[in-house]
Design goal:
The structure is a homodimer. By secondary structure, chain A is of the alpha/beta class. Helices cover about 35% and strands about 25% of the residues of chain A. In chain A, strands 3-2-1-4-8 form a 5-stranded mixed β-sheet. In chain A, strands 11-10-9-12-13 form a 5-stranded mixed β-sheet, with helices on both faces. Chain A is globular.
């Protein structure tokens, strides 16, 4: 038997087959065509699922369950997406509607960031513990938490907004309406903002040569310039890593998961990211003097975490 | 049948009897005499428990279980106190040692702040939900969280340190070693620090008259002066309430409990504290546009939360 996972994005729908050893054995993707409306998006999710089964050469009879990771908040246990602006979902019973294409096969739905955390917990960097947190440093800062072996996202599915705790009261405006959220500093967008601030102060910085112009700054600009010895870039990276570690320490003090893993684009920096964050946390975490405390790791599953975690919602 | 609760403090040991309707029907207290050593403290806990039973006129046969709220971190499920400096506990099997005085009666041990949260969840302001958070604004900022009907304090019991998330990166030094923790602003000590800062800037403020001197400033100084129309005091209170609400919003965004209640000395301010915090949260919380979201309340059980929650660990 196999599990089928669907990673629903604003641009693409990825679908994949995961075997009982929790390995992703096949994946495919089609455009979401979000603008064509909710019904059509769900029909396309079914198409993507069928394409994955066909591509791998199995039928729905060999699928134990279907799982979906979707943007937006999901009502716990019901498969109802409360709200996802880009997809036009508003109290949409996504699980039920998708299930109509696959009668008899259970369909489970969770928020996409939570699903990625679930994947890391089941077969990624956070295997072997009932209590883990996965933080995703991407365009925003997202994540999910596993508590006592279960995904937890608040009584109504609106929690686990890890990026939206304030680390700088009255700091940078955040997309959520607050000021000084972790996301405004620790996301790629936050890193780019910090990079630009430092470039403007220092026209001699190598970051100008690497990026070409302020508009072309990306999440690698400061890291690359630092590796080539640029002092200003090192300041940017240090500041960025401090902000990442500050929020990570907050999560450790609050949730003290056995494993906290960091994923998202920037996690590809590996030890350049991990070591300074670990050092900071070991200086500041409440449990630092205890025999046991949270272990900080890099997430394992990369972009596949979405499909794998969705598939394993039924595992 | 009854439950027996022990609230172990650095100065006093309070013990009480809770009936099956979850009412505290009797309480008593004796000095802890912490300096006399671990064995003696535990013997005194047993004495306090016996005094409570005698005082209420029941025997150990009528006690279903004994619960203890203790300072320090407690290993989940084992009754072992990992560390509590003031009491000399270090990997102390408190549950087992106390149990030797009451053979056959189950003894459960949890951290005191967690126990208070448990009390509010069982019979206080957070009744009727499986997901709640209680924040205690006292000398420090403590608290506990109930997730899916269970107390959660991290895989090792070192979590739920709600006061030690940073809201001001590089801000005020905190006792925990970090800078800018919520506790440094939202605790009574934080409020006193802010009050003093403003008094020093404004020698005309009524706060000087009310307190007498900087040394005599307490948690009421600014609130009392504000009520008498002092502008500077209002600034202090507004700043304080913003800091309280900032951390509360962080907790809502992360945990989205159904109920979050605020206890501790300052919660006696009632609506003066609650209304502005509720307003702030409803402006900033991620779930503010959702049909359902965290409800912010004042905790109900006051100083008795410790005994009641301890007693109800077995309920």
């Amino acid at each position: 038997m196999y599990y089928l996972g669907i990673d629903l994005g604003g641009t693409n729908i990825a679908a994949g087959i995961v075997d009982e050893e929790m390995k992703l054995v096949y994946k495919t993707s089609i455009p979401t065509e979000a603008k064509t409306g909710v019904e059509n998006v769900i029909a396309r999710m079914a198409d993507a699922a069928k394409a994955a089964m066909e591509g791998f050469g199995i039928t729905i009879q060999e699928i134990k369950s279907i799982g979906v990771g979707t943007p937006g908040a999901v009502e716990p246990g019901t498969g109802v997406v409360i709200y996802a602006a880009n997809l036009g979902f508003k109290h949409t019973p996504l699980g039920k509607l998708l299930g109509e294409y696959f009668p008899g096969t259970p369909v489970r739905v969770e928020n996409d960031a939570n699903v990625a955390a679930w994947a890391e917990a089941k077969c990624g960097a956070a295997v072997g513990t009932a209590n883990s947190v996965t933080v995703t440093l991407g365009t925003g800062v997202g994540g999910g938490m596993i508590i006592n072996g279960q995904l937890y996202s608040g009584f109504n599915g609106m929690g686990a907004e890890l990026g939206h705790m304030v680390i700088h009261e009255n700091g940078r405006p955040c997309g959520c309406g607050r000021k000084g959220c972790w996301e405004a500093y620790a996301s790629v967008s936050g890193l780019i903002a910090t990079t630009k601030e430092h470039m403007e102060v220092n026209p001699e910085s190598l970051m100008w040569k690497i990026a070409g112009s302020l508009e072309k700054v990306n999440g690698l600009t400061s890291f690359d310039a630092m590796r080539k010895g640029d002092e200003e870039a090192k300041k940017v990276v240090d500041k960025y890593l401090d902000s990442v570690a500050c929020g990570v320490t907050d999560l450790c003090n609050m949730l003290q998961p056995e494993i906290l893993c960091i994923g998202g684009g920037i996690s590809k920096e590996g030890d350049t990211l991990l070591k300074p964050v670990q050092e900071y946390v070991m200086k500041e975490m409440f449990a630092r003097f205890n025999d046991t405390h949270t272990e900080i790791k890099i997430a394992k599953l990369g972009n596949d975490a979405g499909i794998i975690g969705a598939a394993l919602l039924g595992a």
